[in-house]
Structures are given as structure tokens and as C-alpha cells.
Specification:
79% helix; 0% strand
Length: 462
């Protein structure tokens, strides 16, 4: 008798589970399709190459978003909000000192982090928030908070852009690229000065600050077009390729024992201490004497200064390697006491506009040559961005101290005495630079990538 087959429940169980299993499979397939399309879209939008406009527009718009503030804060508070000079000096000095404490740590973090673009984007957001606070709540404590925030993030922009540029460009292309960076930044400042003056004239001085978030958004788009994978992160912090240099960065204290670095830092501090009031005080004086014209005149002066800086930025990119940094720096510094002397001669708007152009020639040399001088002086140390942060700190000390010092001089001795004091400080900076600062190009050829640590040691970094 044949055996009867034993009934099992397996076919029934499979049949019962088939709809559920099919549902999970369809969901998984849909999820995979969406994910694949997202990856394809991301790869399609992700920049594969660095085109020149990526850095060009980033420099142009970063200058726009920063240039929409600057001297307008002081002029806005004095001429539009009718603050007394002492509170204005206190706000700018306290905010500046809070901000400068962070400049060197920001430089050190730029050496450490691989997300330099991310720092730029965060700084843009903070700057936008500070501008809105200034426009909407111009009372003492909110203004102090906003100014402090903006002073902190101001230490991110120039070092981060310089680090990205060094990481993207070999040394033989760096001078021209840095000069081009500076030229586009000057062009951005010219445009934003014009639009800010127009907005203040047609609408209100608050419009100068309300435009910042829009410019910041455009800047963020430009920054995101710079391909992260094309940045040589070792070179961006001042190290050579790993196959050529296996040891890591030098100790950070070594940087602060460097005689050239200390001299350059002192020169930078004195330059900013003398230079900052020569535009702010002039704009303030005209704004007080001609009420309602402070922001417009400030824009005119900024345009004139930026035109001068544009001329010398182009000059640096084309001729700095051939002529030498030391000579060009000396010329830039020497124009500072000349500017102060010319400011005392006349207070006519057309004359002061011409004087600002002369001052811009010197400022353009100083601004364009600083990242190049530091790149040569720190090559092979791994502390390029730290050196930028340290120099930014000393320059910020000069700028913030100049606000309180110049306003005290104006209160007690008048505007002409303040201008003359700026000229004396500028002359001291020229003498210190000429007699005490060595030229990195004197010890190594500007297009060579060799001799990083040995040359660094010869310059006094031991």
C-alpha cells in the first residue's frame, strides 16, 4: 500500500507571505532608483575642474559682502543714529578686541581642517546676521554683539581664500593668481561701494546693511563651485608633497620666535594703526559738516581707494617676482605718511577723493603682497594659515586700537592733529620695514619649492 504524502503547511506559508515579500522588494527597488538618481544628480552638479571664474567670483563677492560694512558702521552710527563719539569708539574697540582674540586660532584651525570651504560658508552666515542686527536694532548692546560677531568672522575670509589658492596653484603660478585675487577683490569693493552709496542716497543708510544677506547667498554659490578634491591640502597649509617631505609641521611656537615674522607683524600693526583712521575719520568729518551725506561721501572715498588698490594689485600679479617684494612693500608703506600729509592740506571733497586714491595705491601693494610674502617665508613649515592668523591678529590690534586712539585725538586736538599722528606712525612703519625686514626672495628663488625648513631656519625660526 503506497504511503500517503504528509501534508505540510510550507506552500501555504509561502503563499501567505508572497504579497508582503513583493511589497518589500518593490519598496527596495524604488528606494534604490531614487538613491541612484540622487547620486547621478549630485555628480552632475559637483564641479570637476577649477575654472578661473570660480576664484574670480569668489573674491569679487567676498569683497562685496565685507565691503558693505567696514567704515559704514561708524558713519552710520555717528551721522544717522547720532551716537556720541565716545560710545562709537567703545563699541568698535571692544568688538574689535573680542574679534582679534580669535584671529590666530582661526588660522591654526585652517591649517588643521580639510573643510576650508565650510568655514567660509559659516562666516558668510554670521556676517549676514550681524548686518541685520545693525540695521534693525541699532542700540548699544545689539550693536556691540553684532560688531563683535562680524569682527570674529572677518578673520576667516582672507586666510581661507589664500589657503585655497595656495592649494590650487603651484608656486610658479601663485604670484599671478594672488594678484588676480586681489584685483577681483578690489573690483568687488568698488562695485559694492557704488551700490551702497546709491542705496543710502535713494533709500536709507539701513539699506547698506540689508543688502548683505543677498550678496552672501551669491558668494556661497561661488564658493561651492570651487572643487574640494582639486585642493592640495598639504600645500594649502605650507607643506610639500609627502614623498618630498615626510616630517610634519614645525611647532607653532617656532613661528613666534621668528625675527622676520615679528618684524613683519610689527610693521603690519603700525600700518593699520595709521591707515584705518585716514578714511574713517575723513568720512566722519565730512558727514558731520554736511549732514545726510556721510554714507554717500564714504562710498566715493572707498571707490577712489579701491581704484588705487586695483591698479597696484594688477602690478603685483605681473611684476612682483621680477621686482622683488621688499621694494614694492617699501613703496606701499611710504605712501601712507604721504597720504596723511596730503589729508591735512585741504578738506575739499574732490581733493580728499584724490588723496584716497593715493592711499589706495599703497594699501593695494600691502594687501596683495602679504599672502605672497607669508607663503615664501613659511614654505615647508606647515604653518602658513597660522602665520596668516597671527598677522591678522596684529593687524586687527592696529585697526581696533586706531578707532579709540583717533577719536580721542579728535575730541582733544581736532581732526588735523589726528591725521598728523597717523603720518608719524606711518613713517615709523616705513623705517622698521626698510631697516629690519629681510626679503624671502633674497634667500631662495621665488619659483623654487626647495629648501623649506633649512631656509626657514636661516631666517631666524629656531
Amino acid at each position: 500500500m503506497p504511503e500517503r504524502p504528509v501534508a505540510t503547511s510550507l506552500p501555504v506559508m509561502q503563499s501567505d507571505l508572497q504579497p508582503a515579500a513583493g511589497g518589500r522588494a518593490r519598496f527596495r527597488a524604488s528606494y534604490d532608483r531614487v538613491r541612484d538618481r540622487s547620486v547621478q544628480l549630485h555628480q552632475r552638479l559637483k564641479p570637476k575642474r577649477l575654472y578661473a571664474p570660480s576664484l574670480d567670483w569668489a573674491n569679487f563677492l567676498i569683497a562685496d559682502v565685507r565691503g558693505a560694512l567696514g567704515p559704514y558702521v561708524v558713519v552710520y552710527l555717528v551721522t544717522e543714529q547720532h551716537w556720541q563719539l565716545a560710545p562709537v569708539g567703545l563699541v568698535t574697540t571692544l568688538g574689535g578686541w573680542i574679534g582679534l582674540v580669535m584671529q590666530t586660532p582661526i588660522g591654526a584651525w585652517l591649517d588643521h581642517t580639510n573643510r576650508k570651504r565650510g568655514l567660509l560658508l559659516g562666516a558668510l552666515g554670521v556676517l549676514s546676521l550681524g548686518a541685520l542686527i545693525l540695521a534693525l536694532t541699532p542700540s548699544f548692546w545689539p550693536v556691540l554683539l553684532a560688531n563683535s560677531m562680524m569682527q570674529v568672522v572677518s578673520g576667516v575670509f582672507e586666510p581661507a581664500v589664500a589657503a585655497l589658492t595656495v592649494g590650487l596653484c603651484a608656486r610658479d603660478a601663485l604670484t599671478r593668481r594672488m594678484g588676480r585675487n586681489a584685483a577681483w577683490a578690489r573690483a568687488g569693493n568698488i562695485v559694492v561701494a557704488g551700490t551702497s552709496g546709491f542705496a543710502a542716497w535713494v533709500f536709507t543708510a539701513r539699506a547698506v546693511f540689508l543688502q548683505v544677506p543677498l550678496i552672501a547667498l551669491l558668494t556661497a554659490i561661488a564658493v561651492l563651485t570651487i572643487p574640494h578634491e582639486k585642493v592640495d591640502l598639504r600645500r594649502a597649509r605650507g607643506l610639500k608633497q609627502e614623498k618630498e617631505q615626510r616630517d610634519g609641521p614645525v611647532g607653532w611656537l617656532t613661528l613666534f620666535r621668528s625675527r622676520p615674522m615679528l618684524v613683519f607683524g610689527a610693521c603690519s600693526l603700525l600700518y593699520e594703526l595709521a591707515d584705518a583712521p585716514l578714511l574713517t575719520l575723513v568720512s566722519q568729518q565730512i558727514g558731520v559738516e554736511h549732514e545726510g551725506w556721510g554714507a554717500t561721501v564714504t562710498s566715493t572715498f572707498i571707490v577712489a581707494a579701491q581704484l588705487g588698490m586695483l591698479v597696484t594689485s594688477i602690478l603685483v600679479g605681473r611684476r612682483a617676482d621680477a621686482w622683488g617684494y621688499r621694494w614694492l612693500l617699501a613703496v606701499g608703506f611710504a605712501l601712507l605718511p604721504v597720504q596723511a600729509a596730503l589729508t591735512v592740506l585741504s578738506h575739499k571733497v574732490y581733493w580728499l577723493t584724490l588723496v584716497q586714491f593715493v592711499g589706495g595705491l599703497g594699501g593695494g601693494l600691502f594687501a596683495a603682497l602679504t599672502p605672497l610674502w607669508l607663503a615664501d617665508a613659511t614654505r615647508g613649515t606647515g604653518r602658513y594659515n597660522l602665520s596668516q592668523g597671527a598677522m591678522g591678529t596684529l593687524r586687527a590690534v592696529g585697526v581696533t586700537s586706531s578707532g579709540l586712539l583717533s577719536e580721542m585725538l579728535v575730541d582733544r586736538l581736532g581732526y588735523n592733529a589726528a591725521y598728523a599722528g597717523c603720518g608719524v606712525i606711518g613713517a615709523l612703519a616705513v623705517a622698521l620695514l626698510w631697516f629690519a625686514l629681510p626679503d624671502p626672495q633674497a634667500t631662495e628663488h621665488p619659483t623654487a619649492d626647495e629648501a623649506p625648513r633649512a631656509t626657514f631656519t636661516k631666517r631666524g625660526l629656531t
